[in-house]
Amino acid sequence: MNRILDMLNWVVQKSRKNLLVCGDFNVDMFSNMVSKSRLLDWCCEFGLNQLINKPTRETFDSNGNILTSTCIDLALSRFPLTMNIKSRVVDFGISDHKGLVIEFGKNNNRQRKQNIKRIKVDVWKFSPDILNFARNNKPIVSVGNDANSAALALTEWFQEMNSLAVSTKSLTTGRSEVPKWFTQDLQLLKEEFQNNKTPGFIRNQARNRYVKEVRKAKKKFV
User: Fold this and answer.
1) CA 46 to mean position of chain CA atoms
2) From CA 162, how far away is CA 156, in angstroms rounded?
3) Which of 55, 123, 130, 139 has CB 3.0 to 4.6 Å from 69, enough for a Cys bridge?
């Protein structure tokens, strides 16, 4: 625990006002151990909040019953009150530890214009099919990879899993306000990209075609 606090003190000294520290602290928030009290006291002293309150690691017996359930992967944050922060615990299927998803951004307190006609809503759902796909298509990271290439491979893999899990719904409240440059051909390219759910060359090719044509259409319109 002393090493963890030494590391956190160093991070605080090097950081600015806003701060987010995530990782496996090996300090169980479900326990009454001294290490938990020391970590929370440190957070209180430096104005940080611990965001995770759900199990991040579970062990099972041969029948699938839970043997242990701990919350040891934590997220310590220090953001202004105007910042909107959301956290989720997600089983990506590649580790005995679950992943942490942290979303943060400024609250939009401005009054919405009355002429808004269409609202897009992102729905995030990590279904069993996607979970099985993730387990069977793990990112390729070998011991010989350097840190940058390994981080790039993991980032691309997480982005692919996120794109599979996110769907967008449009709620129309009045007359459509689709931009004038957004043609029917662009809509078809968009649908072709969105219908290719399986990561790979074909999906990437469809995405690149759609993005390229959108940029061209915007440039001509401006």
Assistant:
1) 26
2) 10
3) 55
Tell me the pLDDT of the chain averaged across its residues. 82
- Residue 79 in contact with residue 16, Cβ under 8 Å? no
Report the chain's C-alpha Rg in angstroms. 22
> Are the beta carbons of 105 and 84 closer than 8 angstroms?
yes
- Each residue's pLDDT tens digit, 43-79: 998 999 999 999 999 999 988 899 999 999 999 999 9
Tell me: pLDDT of 38 over 70. yes
Number of Cβ within 10 Å of residue 65's Cβ equals 8
Instruction: Tell me how far CA of residue 148 lies from CA of 153, 154, 219, in angstroms.
Output: 9, 10, 34
- pLDDT at site 76: 95
Name the strand (E) or helix (H) holding 90. strand 83-90
Tokens, residue 62: 């041969």
Q: What is the pTM of this model?
A: 0.51
Q: Which two three-digit tokens encode residue 109?
A: 């307190």
* Separation between Cα atoms, residue 2 and residue 68, nearest integer Å: 25
* CA proximity to 165, closest of 93, 57, 72, 220: 93
Question: Positive or negative, the Cα torsion across 33, 36, 39, 42?
Answer: negative
**Mean pLDDT score, 158-184:** 68
Q: How many Cα atoms occupy the beta-carbon half-sphere of 208 within 13 Å?
A: 6
Tokens of 176: 């459509």
What is the predicted pLDDT for the residue at 4? 93
AA identity, residue 161: M
